[in-house]
Structure formats: C-alpha cells, structure tokens
Amino acid sequence: MCGIIGYIGTKLVKDILLDGLTRLEYRGYDSAGIAVLTPSGVEITRTVGKVSALKEAATQAADGHAGIGHTRWATHGGVTVPNAHPHRCGRVTLVHNGIIENFALLRERLARSGRFPLSETDTEIAAMLIDSLYDGDPAGAILGAARMIEGAFALVVLFEDRPERLYAIRRGSPLVALSNEDGAYVASDVTALLDHGRDYFVPPEDVLLVARREGIQLTDQAGNAVRPQMLRADWDYTAAQKAGYPHYMLKEIFEQPQALTRTILPRVREGIIQLEETAPVDDALKGARQLFIVACGTAMHAGLAAKTLMENMLRLPVEVDIASEFRYRDPIADAGTPVVLVSQSGETADTVAALRLARLKGAPVVAVVNVKGSTIARESDAVIYTHAGPEIAVASTKAFTVQLAALYMLTLHMARLRGALDQDRLREHAQALLTAPQLIQEALDRESQVREVADAVHRATDMFYIGRGLDVAMAQEGSLKLKEICYLHSEAYGAGELKHGTISLIEPGVPTFALATQREVYPKTLSNMREVRARGGTVIPIVTDGWEVEPGSYDYLLRVPGEGGVLAVFPLAAILQLLAYHCAVYRGLPVDQPRNLAKSVTVE
Ligand code: F6R
Fold first, then answer.
1. Is 463 helix (H, G, I), strand (E, B) or coil?
2. pLDDT by residue (tens digit) across 49-103?
3. 584 near 486, Cβ under 8 Å?
4. Cα(first)–Cα(last) distance of the chain, in Å?
5. In the annotation, is 524 catalytic?
6. 179 forms bridges with which residues in the sheet?
7. CA of 398 to the centre of ligand 1 (A)
8. Atom of ligand 1 lying closest to residue 397 CA
9. How far is the CA of 353 from the CAs of 297, 337, 348, 360, in angstroms?
10. Within 13 A of 572's CA, how many CA atoms are on the CB side?
11. Closest CA relative to residue 157, chosen from 105, 97, 205, 100
C-alpha cells in the first residue's frame, strides 16, 4: 500500500526521501514521487514504476531541507504521472495514504467555487480542499479539511509559505514519527526511519502533528498539547535486509525457527503456556459460549487452522470470518463471544473495521499482531504479540507460522482457564510446541527436494491442493502462496470435496498436491489422490515421515518431518512456502513484489 516519508531538518532532504522510499518499496506500489521545498518554491518529481526510476529522474532536481515522498498503490485513477503523489494546489503540496470516501462530493463542492483537479485522484481533492481553507493558518486549514473528509487518511503537508514546518494528520491509516538532533521525520512505517532513530511514536488519530527541525509537537482539535506514547523498534535495519539471500521471502522463510522460538519461549512458564497479556479478557475467554476469529488472507488461514484446534481441544464453537464479510454482515457478537483478530501489520483496513464493530457490539477483542503499536494492537482489549520481526516480502511466511503458534498458545491458555485439559496434558502440549522451531528447521533442510518438485511442476497453468482436517487450512495457504507469487491458477479443497465438481478440471499434467499429515484421515486423502491420478493428473503427496504411501500411486513424493498431528502445521507450512517460492523463481517472477499486491492493505 502507499508509502509516505517526510523530513524537515538540518540535513539535505532528497536522499533521505529517496532512501526512505526504497525502504518502503516492499509495501507494494506502482508510481513514486518527491516534493522538495527549495528557496524558489516546491519542486516536484514523479515517475511511474520503480523508485530507481524516480532516483534517476531526481538527479537534476534541486535539494533542500524539507520535503515529502510517496510510493503510490493506485486506488482512484490509473497508474500515471499526473496521478502520482505529491499533489500540489496553490501553496499546498501533500502526500496521502488511504481513501477519501466522500471525494466525489468534495470535488463537486470545490468545482462550484471554480476549482478543478488535474488528476483522477482523491488525494488532489484533499490538497485542493486544504488550499481552499488556507488563509495563512495551516493548522486551521488542515483540521478544517480533516473534519470534512470521510474515510481513511494519513496526510503529510508542506505549505510553500511556511518553509520551516511540515504538517501531518492521520485517521485510520498508518503513520509514525520520530525526531533527533538532525530534525523530524514521519513515515508510513518505522522501517523507513531506522537509520534515524529507534524511539518513535504513532500520532493519535485526528491530532495535528507539526514538525520543525527542533522537534515535533502534537495538538488536538481544541488546541491542547498531546503527549505521544513512545515505542521502541527492537530490531535494526539489518533485520530488514536480505542478509545474502536472493529474496526477502526466502530469508523470511528461513528465519522461522528463530521467530517461533522468540514467540513461544517467553510464554512457557513452569512447564505450561501462560499468557499474561490476555489478563484483561481472561474472564470473557473463560466464560465464552462461542469465539470469532476474524482476519484476511494468510492471517485468516491461520485462523482456520486454529478453529480445528480450538473446537477439538476446547469443545467451543469457533467461527472464522473474512474481515471484509464480518464487518458488513451484522454478526451475532456480544460480551459472550470474544473476537480474536489476527494481523501481521495490525493495519489491514477491513480487520481494523471488524475490530471497531466487535467493540461496538460489546465483544471483548484479543489481537494476534506482529507490528508493535499498530492500530489493531492499540485498539484491542488484549494483544498477543508475535515476534516474527519485520516481514518485508509481500507474501507472508514467517508471520503465518508465528500466528499459528500464538493461536495454539491461546488455545492452551483457554484450555487451562476453562478446565478443558488437565495439568499433564497442558505440559505435554507446551513441550510439544517447544519442538516446533526444530521441526520447521528440519523441513527447511529439505529445500533441495522441494526445489526438484518445483522444477517439475512450475510450467503448469493450474494446480490443486487437497487435504483433510488441519490440512485443509494448510492447503488453502499453500494455494494462496502459489497464486500470489507464481501468477498461476490454483485451488484448495477438502480432499473429499473434489469429486463433487472440481475433479472435472483434472486432466493430464495438472498437478495436485495431497497434504496428508493428520493420522486419522491420511489414508482417505491418499485415496482421493488416487482418484485424481486415475484421471491422468500429476499427483504429489506431501506426507508425514514414515507413513506408508503405496509405491507407484504418485508422481513425486515430499515428506514432512515429525509425527503428524497439530505440530505438522509448522514443517508443512515451510514446505508449501518453499514450493511456491521455487516455482516463482523458475518462472522468473519478482518474488518479493508480485504484481498488483500490497504488503499491508490499508484500503477497503
Ligand atoms: C498473503 C498475505 C495477505 C495478508 C493479508 C492480511 O501472503 O500477505 O493475504 O495475510 O493481507 O494482512 P495482515 O496480516 O497484515 O492483516
């Protein structure tokens, strides 16, 4: 999604903006631009395509000590230079992340006073609106515009006649800020600012941020000073670099053993899982008569796996909902139905909206979040942080497996609260979970076998994933990874469902991966696999070590370390991730930044 950077201070701004935008590239974008405040006015450079093109275009541009930069992921209007940010109107130049929902209404209103946009964007309307309200008082103009704008926004604004200040305001869209002896910085996320400091804050919503070279001030709508809550980035930029791997995605796949250890280990106390962070909602978790898990994409798949686990262990009904559906279907949520939100970024617009709806309905909200201080983390009643570290590749990998671990731990915690498992069983589960990092490492050690299979199947145009029980959720995740980065059609099914329609799509050469890591149902999955093979399909069972697979019943075979069951989700996830990764590499695709996708989907 769009990335924002802004700086004012004693240093030259152009390189700070361009470096910041490079670090925000992972968010996904299709055009980029910067605006630099120079003695002769604001100079804007914009290009379509990569930040490298912007860098080239900006070589001759003037430099200065204040400026803003932006990477745009198109929402209103196509991918063109006039639609790229920054946008200028009169003395106002700004960048924007989010969607202004009432932009058509505002555009009409501005047209009545003879103001017409040059671009198709909602952002230019914001620039025009602020300019129309500007009478020499930047704060009044920005706050006035914010009151009129409906939707989500993070705006960073330069006023040509106020060269000593940079202004920002946000509602619903991410923005972070920090200051040091060289000046003040704002950005969409802290990754862009790590060279300038570790102590940062998230400006509260609808609060005006005024940055000067001496520091940053926050004031609310009534003009009162607001003190931000400081956060510390406990990782540095090297954690967000490729460290010798050809792609971020591969690096992040290989970081999973450490990420899992960081997430699980601190929560094992006296041999069992203890989640102190859920204390505010423990009574609700104890008495819950139903649970919702709400998320999008990969995070939702972690929820699907957790549903199987929770229903099994807790005998508690669990409903998994796509956030964009939950928010509009008037869910039957109340104080007796806690809502568990799962999100890597903590900023996904639909998940944020689901959170606010759940709270409105009086449902206690627990969030499983990776990014500290994100909107979902701040607004939930309790937060279980995953400690994946920065996830830069668009395709989520390590964030998924730590989400699985966090949800497993939540299940065990609830089992203790509700008396669903005795102390011995709780201990057994905690000990088992502690082996997850090792299991995933063993799967990573099998990369070359996975690569061989990827080599054999990567030219296919359609692929299928089947499984039963926990393997259904994993099939969905494997299929999503493949679609995202390999641009090929893929579907995932409960293995028993294929013959109710989809099997008609099987023809010679179409690969089907049969995931079989759940002991009770694995023979059934393998027999569904044989049905596919009988119709000429290429079949690849992915089966737990040591479990029998009839020789001659498959084309290629992959093995999952361990003994199957719940823990198999960890090594299986790694195998499916490696499979998608190597298929994408064989297909020559841009693994880390697949087309049309954004890392954090901050629009509806
Ligand atoms: C897939 C992927 C997306 C995200 C989804 C939710 O690889 O990355 O499907 O999982 O957009 O994002 P978060 O977890 O940030 O809410």
1. strand
2. 999 999 999 998 999 999 999 999 887 788 999 889 999 999 999 999 988 889 8
3. yes
4. 11
5. no
6. 184
7. 12
8. 7
9. 16, 17, 9, 11
10. 34
11. 97
The closest residue, in CA terms, to atom 9 on ligand 1 is: 297
Tell the residue number behind the tokens 């497993």, with chain if given.
408
Tell me how far apart the alpha carbons of residues 473 and 404 are, in angstroms, rounded to a whole number: 11
C-alpha span between 147 and 139 (Å, rounded): 12
Cis peptide bond upstream of 523, omega within 30:
no
What is the four-CA torsion angle of 170, 172, 175, 177, rounded to 10 degrees? 60
- Residue 270's CB is within 10 A of a number of other CB atoms, namely 8
- Closest-CA residue to 264 (of 449, 442, 115, 405): 405
What count of residues does the chain have?
Answer: 604
Structure tokens at 430: 């905690």
Cβ-proximal residues to 14 (8 Å cutoff; 6+ apart), any chain: 34, 36, 58, 61, 63, 64, 67
- Of 79-93, 108-122, 392-406, 563-577, least confident by mean pLDDT is 108-122
- What is the residue-wise DSSP string for 312-378? HHH---EEEEEHHHHTTS-----TTS-EEEEESSS--HHHHHHHHHHHHTT--EEEEESSTT-HHHH
CB hemisphere CA count around 415 (13 angstroms) = 26
**pTM, two decimal places:** 0.83
Structure tokens at 261: 């250890």
Let me know: does 502 contact 601? Beta carbons within 8 Å. Answer: no
Q: From the candidates 55, 307, 483, 599, which is the catalytic residue?
A: 599
For residue 534, how many other CB atoms are within 10 A of its CB?
11
Residue 499 bears catalytic tag: no
